């Protein structure tokens, strides 16, 4: 026996000899196998089976076993291994999932060898049939449960079920929390579970469960019982009687208890349920005694039947037998006294302007005085609602020297009392002067108050203002609303200023009459200074807390605070819950809380809180202690078992068999005295690898086990000797090749002919070593397995079983031998090589060759080179014959690599992947110029090349990589002359083994591109093209591929585990070996049907308006979160989306073949909300680009900003045309005879109209000089309109002339000329409005409509004679019309013939549409519609029907609104007239100008009309602006008009756009302002990056939901033709968008911030990862939601100007986490100065390189984030501010408030919200730890240097910070934490296993494990805390969670190892999933 003393080795032995083979084959010919099915069973839903070979010969592999259920074929599986004689095989069916859905029986048949592949001795016994019973009905509880036999410490729970089932009771002392369980596994229908060790006089909550034999469980609802109290004598107070006596309420209080009631308790009196009086009982009351007492309350009868109630012991001072019988209530009838004035009224303190009226009443009542200057006529009233009997009312603001008459009145529930009239007279005026001073200043709560006093000799008038100053600045003011007579005072409160102590001393000054409104005797004495001393020392815990165990059931918690405060201890034995508490209200600095009733032998966690009387509080971090056990019996070890592990080196699992595991603390395992492992949870096991312990393997060992159970210890030692195992011997022929033919001239090999033979052979060994310098994922051991090749003793060579030579050991493992083949005859020869490691370990290999005589023929040789991550494969096809060979195709094959399809001059490369993409057939299609076949001339060689990329698979045994494993096929044109040539690649041209080269390619790659080939094929019909393009991208981007498919491929957790497994050997993007999981790239190819996305539960976010989001669908962020389940991505993740293979390939090609140079950017704003900020969105992005261009390098060509509302203007002329107008001028547009369409200005001072045609309008100078003109009587208040009133096809101009009281008509040739006009009598008044329109379908001309506000509104209709010269009144309609209302005549109702009369109502904020007869046809809601808004109507879109336009003159946030209403835009619904969706539009724009509509009675000066000025068939809205002297033309065709112009601009620059940012509202198919249709018109040839900062723009599936304000779930199905896919179709390379509704404030911040952070040398994917990583790690729920919902689509390696391909050497990494700077303990941070940008009246404050705080209803203050790398072994415990300095103060800033608006759902302004009072934010910093790879982590600290008080507009900025970072050097390492499965059904048990080790001495620790929801981090459940005492060396620990009741979704287990002081020593997480039962 030979052993290796240095390494742990596993050897496979192959003793195969030629003679043995022959003998074995002869034996087989006489024997046959016989397969039978011996068992079949279901486990976790899968059907398993066991086969046995009962025959006399082995059963070969490849036969099929099938499953049939109820007669139908369900699944089949190929048995891939041979089954020896007497051997067995176990398997399962992978595609059929067994699930019982209803009660009943099923026939299950398993048949082996279903296709009779195996010839058996008995073909009739291959099937096994079983009947499986399905029982899915849970038992029913038919009676109970109920608690019986209740004592002080015990009870029994009984219930009955309708079928046999087990018994479980879960119970506890809090509702819904059942920490205790008792059970009985006996199956029965009558259930009794006794409960003991209960606490007396305690209420218990419990549920029962019963589970039948089929696993169906029923659980009862919650029930309760209370244990009996300890028998003690207690009093029992009650009220025996209540009565009235001597106007007092008497009562008798008695004691019916068994003990005296001590004195000092209180009785309370309630009258009509209002507390009126209390009475303290001052003497004890003996048992059965009583005492009569009276309340000192003067009885007043409130009503005839008042209710009186008396309660004994109302403060619960006395502990009683019955606390429920203390009250008695009675009705005491009485007579109600009527209200009367008892005295007065009298007049006091009469001055010049004031008098006080005084009177009394016999009952409490209110006070009112009515007065006037004439008898009986009271013009003034003063009222005070306060109820009193003594009334006093001050009458002020009286006239000096005036007699007043008055009466007083009082009222209450008894009635009203009124006095007789009386009089008084005020004093005459005197010339006296007041003098105001500040008498005193004080603080009340958080407000400053002061007293103003008049020390002069004259009265001070009311409404003078006092000011509050600090640091010389006015911070608030308050008005004294009352006048002050000499000597009087008034208290005023500064309500705006919110005072908080921040400094030790605050100095304030209050000044009276700061506006000098009061003329005073002394104007210099108005101020008073006031200093406030503050205790700014925060409440701190300066010592402790410490948990000190007293007994097995008691402990005490001790701590010290720096200030007196109360004491509160929270504790529990379950992690993270703190469900128990005990407190003391006593204020103290030394705190002690005694805990009683603890459970023996249990670990508890605790934390303490203390609060001062003024509300200041402090809370500690958690601490831990363990109570001693009650006592243990002596543990006993029964046995130890050893089980060989399935590893590549000898490894054994040792299990300690104990008589009882209860009470066992731990089990320690030793080998020859060396500690192996400590296990803290059963089953107690250890892993023993002999080669690791001593380097020796196959020798006797002494294995010792020690059990610790409290004070009891037991040990056992037994011998163990591992069975000898051979090392694996690897041997293969390098040449000759398999089946290689050697040609000879004759029939025997001539003399001197040698055939070289070379074999590569070695003994494969596995050594274990520490992976120094390699970055590892968290939880992965630093030990690494390394396969090494050891030399053999020799290799023996045989030919046809004849020994021909031996080659001794070779260090390079190559054994070469030249065989002298002289004399060999034609035919096959068998070469054999015996690779000898030792006498027991021999590997035999054979190779056939042919010796033939014949013509020369085709041969093929192969060459392979590795080029970084790719393999260049060359086939050399040589014709060694004498004639040409016409070749059609050459077929090659690769296994584990993905070839790249390509086309060259002479041949094309095509691939055919197998299922799963494992193997690829490569077809090299040759072609000659002008011919279909390729001629290979004799003695010529054709070289054919293609590239292939390694692929990773997540399957056992999938590490196989082969190039040319199958022979190469060379096929001629007819297919008759086909050559099959073996030329596998063993080594590359660099003489390196292919497997080693594959490993190097994988190790050097930093980019993983993955898809599911099978699902690609099923979705698109074929996968070859997609897989090839993926390989092409990988070739250019230093990537490799990954194909996750099969079972688990629909689970994103499983796929992420694949990525983690594959990435462990890959490089980081910085070139660091093994660093992929820290910063690699990942590309997902395909939508969620191919590679599933994640649905992640997030922290609930509540939107303004009441809706709520609770989850994010279609998120890809978790794919990048590969280190820890903290939502913070390490990988740069992208996804390719599209509904076809071509769409996926388009995105790849746009990434590779692009003109992207980041020189041209377009930022478009489509925001429609008034709160949205065009400048703060699109323009802020542009400003970033402009700054980058100035710095040089990028964005140098152009940075453009677009806002869609600018295109509402015709031709985007936002500044309009020159159109001089004076105030009072009129404006109208008309199609005039002889001139055409004209814009007309009417001048009241000259009575002339001047007009210019449209062609003469000019932006700079419109030529009015010399323009055509006409005479027109017109004044500034006259009405003005135009229309074709005579039906001649051209317009006339109509004036309603108020001065002439006539309707005047001009421009009607020949009836009028330029100097003549026609006038017609009409009764006109100011506010009358006129309009023209086709009111009657029988008229060819337009009617003149006059709307009048007189008599509530009338409308007169006039008809103008066709030939002119006559005007006839036609009709009058009663239509409501008032001043400021608007009038237009237009066709808005398609069901009504002719136009309608349309009134815009100022009062109703609605538009009313009437027919020509005055009937109301419809109402159009229009909010707002106010005075001076403009209402016009016309055919804006050229569809033949009119639209309405309302231009609002009011400005909101620098913008105006333009409403567009399409015809038939409303419907009448349940709530009245409602707008129809998409039939109206609202435009907010800063590009709209309006100065208020000109009216005939008001002050507006502007005029708005509509006409088709440019002749395009669509009418424009024409706005004449007097103030600007401009004429603006707006396109009312909202839907397409502006877009046509905007798209033309985009199309003009489409071939230059590198970065395209969109800001606005969105949905899956739209990102304002662009929809799918508009994007489809663009050709983005540069391959830009598109960032759509809007809701749902990245939701490629079109399905989304949220919870609305009513609490209901709204689900939207918008279709899967998303705008993201459209952008890719048009050439975009990258698209970033949101899958859910998105917060507008965060979007506004993200655009410019991302563009600023994206370094030119950085890939877009890395830049987005870094930005999203910072957001996800911010600790802000809104930013975490934002980071989760935004996905990156496209190649994440796109966009770096240096090409973005990471090709750093893996041998010399540039960056390594291990080389990071040490974490400073007291870092000093100096911040840049903050900057202010003012927009729309708001000051946006930012810190360069910082961020902005976005919290709902909170001012948006700047913040700053810093990060440090934390090396492995260092655990951050706390971060605090040690010092802040460099204070800068300011006042007057107006910061915006964060309003959480949903972009997609809110199109209007949000209502203003008021932030909380005081300073914001209320914290100095936040910090969190982001886990990294190999135990390293990142400390992220968010500083809050800027504090703001919105009430006073004060701000404070701290420029310097010094931090105090508390760390701990931990010796504890968690090697790995995992769950026993990655996916569970709800209700399954989730078992988590932890492996850890401690360096150095033993340490007492605790395991703190919780279950959290992934995404929101919500605590789902805390597991029982566990004690890991004496932790040393390697240890393991397990915990189990019952997932019953948990919803499907993603969760993670978090385990912390803490010491007794609560310090965290190590932390790790493991993700798992609860799958839906569906």
Give a quick set of tags describing it:
single chain, 1974 residues, 11-stranded mixed β-sheet, 8-stranded mixed β-sheet, 128 strands, disordered N terminus
User: Strand content of the residues, in percent?
Assistant: over 45%
Structural class: mainly beta
Main sheet properties: 11 strands, mixed
Average pLDDT number:
85
Number of beta-strand segments: 128
Low-confidence stretches: 1-30, 771-781, 1168-1176, 1699-1717, 1800-1807
| Rg (CA only) | 47 Å
**What is the terminal separation in angstroms?**
58 Å
**Helix count, per DSSP?**
16
Overall geometry: globular
Q: Give the % helix.
A: under 10%
How would you characterize this protein structure?
The protein has 16 helices and 128 strands. The two termini are 58 Å apart. The strands form 29 sheets. Strands 42, 43, 45, 46, 122, 123, 124, 125, 126, 127 and 128 form an eleven-stranded mixed β-sheet that branches. Strands 56, 57, 59, 64, 68, 69, 70 and 73 form an eight-stranded mixed β-sheet that branches. Strands 58, 60, 61, 62, 63, 65, 66 and 67 form an eight-stranded antiparallel β-sheet that branches. Strand 16 and strand 17 form a beta hairpin. With 1974 residues, the protein is mainly beta.
